[in-house]
Design goal:
Elements (H helix, E strand, L loop, with lengths): L1 H18 L3 H4 L19 H8 L9 E8 L2 H8 L1 H18 L5 E6 L2 E7 L4 H13 L3 E6 L2 E6 L2 E7 L6 H8 L1 H14 L1
Antiparallel strand pairs: 1-3, 1-6, 2-3, 4-5
Length: about 190
């Protein structure tokens, strides 16, 4: 019982610290705790994504960035703990890596967000349909928690944009995040 109370205390402290930050800050590349070290998924972090993308902005019309949000990951972490959440995330990463092309690049973007960089010789609509088909395939994941087997659907939401429409990494992030876009627009208005 004492073991579970220590875990519960840690989770409460973590939630309390997170409450002070808006959701967009919790999931941004600036707050990814795995950026300089290996993430639980084994994927590189946001700085590696930025290194890959910076030379492609405004240039390559065949490159698309997809933010993949594991919508139930936080619930799994709250109910079953960090180990179960890491298992769920690893399962989702393996599923996505198998479902998409072998040359697609994946990054651990934030707490429950993955980034995929796709190179396709087709229009945005066709690429969006491909990703929608993959993410809508409701694959179930069986987890063992406290001696019980629990089946959970792998639920993934996504946003996608072509890299060629942006001049910089910051501009692309603002397009993905309305709060960041508002702050950028406010700053630009102040400078005028």
């Amino acid at each position: 019982d004492q073991y579970y109370s220590v875990i519960a205390e840690k989770e409460l402290v973590k939630k309390a610290l997170d409450l002070d930050r808006p959701p967009s800050d919790r999931d941004s590349q600036d707050n990814c705790q795995w950026d300089q070290t290996e993430s639980p998924t084994g994927l590189p972090g946001p700085s590696k994504a930025k290194d890959l993308l910076v030379p492609l902005f405004g240039v390559d019309p065949q490159v698309y960035v997809v933010l993949l949000k594991l919508t139930v990951l936080q619930t799994i972490e709250e109910r079953y703990g960090e180990e179960a959440a890491a298992d769920y995330m690893n399962n989702a990463v393996q599923f996505l890596m198998q479902a998409l092309r072998s040359d697609d690049r994946f990054f651990h973007w934030g707490r429950h967000v993955l980034m995929a960089v796709l190179r396709r010789k087709m229009p945005l609509g066709a690429v969006r349909m491909e990703v929608a088909r993959v993410t809508s395939t409701c694959r179930e994941h069986v987890m063992e928690v406290n001696g019980r087997r629990i089946m959970i659907a792998t639920s993934i939401a996504f946003e996608m944009l072509p890299v060629s429409q942006f001049a910089s990494f910051t501009e692309m992030l603002a397009a993905f995040d309305p709060q960041l876009r508002e702050r950028r627009d406010e700053k630009a208005a102040e400078e005028r």
